[in-house]
Amino acid sequence: MSLEAVPAPPPMVRLEGVSKTYRRGTVEVPVLEAVDLAIDPGAFVAFMGPSGSGKSTLLNLISGLDQPTTGIVEVAGRNLAELNDRELSDWRAAHVGFVFQLYNLIPVLTAAENVELPLLLTPLSRAERRKHVAAALDVVGLSHRVGHRPPQMSGGEQQRVAIARAIVTDPDLIIADEPTGDLDRKAAEAVLDLFGVLHHDLHKTLVMVTHDPHAAERAERVHHLEKGVLQ
Amino acid sequence: MNYVRLAARDLLRNPLRLSLTILAGAVGVTAFIFLRTVIDIFYFGAQAAQVDRLIVRNKVSITEPLPLSYYARIAALPGVTAVTHQEWFGGTLGETQKDFFANFAIDPVTFLDVFPEFTTSPAELADFRNDPCGALIGEKLARRFGWKPGDRVTLKGQIYPGDWTFNVRGIYTGTRPGVDTTALVFGYRCLNESEQLPEGLKDMVGIYAVRVDDPARSGQVAAAIDGMFDNSPYPTKAESEKAFQLGFVAMSSAILTAVKVVSAVILLIILLVIGNTLAMGVRERTRDIATLRAMGFRPRTVVMLVLAESSVIGLMAAALGVLAAPTLVNGFARAIASQFGQIPDNVMRGRTLGVSALAAVLVSLLAGAGPAFRAVRMSVAEGLRKVA
């Protein structure tokens, strides 16, 4: 019988020596400094820290919305620096789902149409898209709100639609930027419960930025950022 | 859900603003069509010119006369099949410009040989030729004043002082669309043999119209005519009918240039109005656009969505403008027909409508390009931070 060790799967997110500096006029403002980080597939990680500590910048780098000044960002085995704008767009469409603090739903589209949006970038047929949309809305418990537009829904419901939109393409990684920041306690709990389902039942990798310690408690691991430095 | 629906929903976010923009664009398109038609009207005479006709005028100026004696010498030239002469009379019916219509003294015998597009019945033509002060009137002029054969028309002479009375002997029509049927022509003898004729104008005519057997030899015939009278007291300038008509257009070149500039300015206004609406719409949706791009929508797709909106605005404005233009333009044409004479009933050309509609759509696309490219130039992270 062989006792060879099974190799550990490569991390879903790997940051090595990542720093980010913004230039405001002639002044250079360092936002992140020498961040090294690895997030395993299926992990649920939260980042906390005061405003201006670099949390959102870190999320932008991980999701390919921004480029580091130095260092390597590798997600799902791809070094994001090697991708051009178009490839990055395609990569995000295939691998990343977003949940924003203010939900960022398109107000003139219904819940179903909002959820369907990322599927327009896939080769799925209209009927297949509808099936995926129905399934995603079912996961977040909003099958009865299919035809409602965002202004007709509560904040909690809108955020659940946003979560449905984030998972409808079955991405490897879900990025959540203050997902409960604009919700009351009850709605926030419902959203966090949903994150629990995504993590435990659907085995998604979740990276969340939050100010809320209660929300952070739901994560497996919590990182603190202080003035751009990972504690 | 598809891209068309997405663009349509974005377009309908602010229906009032959309309606006003389309309306403004339509007003611009109508104004553009109107001005382009005005330009067409100026060139209408040149477009209706016949290739086998030459016009011979005094080399010094169109207002200077030529001797009647040139008639026989021109008619005898090889390649000339017919010659006639005419004289701008410039009489007025009433005191106001509203009563104005074109009137000429012509040679009743040869006129229709050179201008066969004018036609009347043989009986009326014979009456006209037999009456030294007989007149033929165009059918539109007859309709305008309710005149009929047998009526007498008195015009007040401006170039030839005094009151001049003509006997309407017939009504002429055109053999093809575009023939001027708003004028009155009368026999040259009535003018030339009158005691009212000012001194020095006896046996003088305004211009000769010459018909040639081969349009390809028009230049040679024109040169021969000019050469024949080069050293006379009344040197001539013979040119094609088209060139002659364009000479009239050239006299109005400053007005035409102004009209062309204004029509270009109208396109610029359409561009600014639609551009402003799209810029506002795109700015209001900065976060939505950033969200789409975060999800993986390529910049090109976002640009196409905005351009689709702008082209729809352009198409709607063009459609409304094209629908509204005929009423305005044809009304204007009717109002000025007495001054311009040769304006067809349906003065607006399909080409003008097509070009105007195309210009509106192209300008709309151009108007959308700025906001579209600005939308995708902004970094996604920055766009996501915007709060509507």
TrEMBL record, chain A:
GO function terms (MF aspect): ATP binding; ATP hydrolysis activity; transmembrane transporter activity
Lineage, top ranks: Bacteria, Pseudomonadati, Myxococcota, Myxococcia, Myxococcales
Matches recorded under InterPro entries: AAA+_ATPase, ABC_transporter-like_ATP-bd, ABC_transporter-like_CS, ABC_transpr_LolD-like, MacB-like_ATP-bd, P-loop_NTPase
Family as reported in the entry's similarity comment: Belongs to the ABC transporter superfamily. Macrolide exporter (TC 3.A.1.122) family.
Keywords, ordered alphabetically: ATP-binding, Nucleotide-binding, Transport
UniProt KW Transport keyword: yes
Protein name per the record: ABC transporter ATP-binding protein
Superkingdom of the organism of origin: Bacteria
TM annotation in the entry: none
Domain ABC transporter: 13-231
Record SMART domains: AAA
Cellular component per GO, a single term: plasma membrane
From TrEMBL, chain B:
InterPro entries: ABC-4/HrtB_transporter (IPR051125), ABC3_permease_C (IPR003838), MacB_PCD (IPR025857)
Transmembrane segments: 20-44, 261-282, 302-325, 353-376
Pfam families: FtsX (PF02687), MacB_PCD (PF12704)
The ABC3 transporter permease C-terminal domain, residue ranges: 261-379
Taxonomic path: Bacteria, Pseudomonadati, Myxococcota, Myxococcia, Myxococcales
Main location: membrane
Name of protein: ABC transporter permease
Gene Ontology terms: cellular component: plasma membrane
Domain of life: Bacteria
Membrane topology: Multi-pass membrane protein
Organism whose genome encodes this protein: Pyxidicoccus fallax
Subcellular localization, as worded in the UniProt entry: Cell membrane
Keyword list, A-Z: Cell membrane, Membrane, Transmembrane, Transmembrane helix
Domain annotation MacB-like periplasmic core: ranges: 20-226
